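Workshop exercise sheet. Pairs work together: one partner reads the sequence aloud, the other fills in the structure field after running the prediction. Swap roles for the next sheet.
Pair: D.N. / O.F.
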Amino acid sequence: MSMIFCRGCGKEIHESAPTCPHCGAPQTIPSNQGKVSFSSYDQVPWYRKQWFAFVCFLIFTPGLLLILLSGDVYYESKGQLKTYSTTAKVVLIACVIIYFIVAFTL
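Structure field:
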């Protein structure tokens, strides 16, 4: 039986627990690919949600670049949790880099 620590309260819980039995905090479940998977959009951290990436694009573009380079951006479509494809991430990163080049050379 493998144990981990709760992301909310820090108490020891079983690694397969979807929520902490002590505080009720949702737990992330590692997938086979080494990425973190979430069972619902509510479990996704706010800084990985689509709305936050959009706000970063409008207000603080370097923030969007950091988000895209460090992990996935999640959104909900027809009740299913999805992430942007690698191609979409590459296109967004290219747009941010072009924005920086244009903004700082004029």
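Discussion prompt: Strands lie at 3-5, 12-14, 29-30, 36-37, 74-77, 80-83. What would you look at next?
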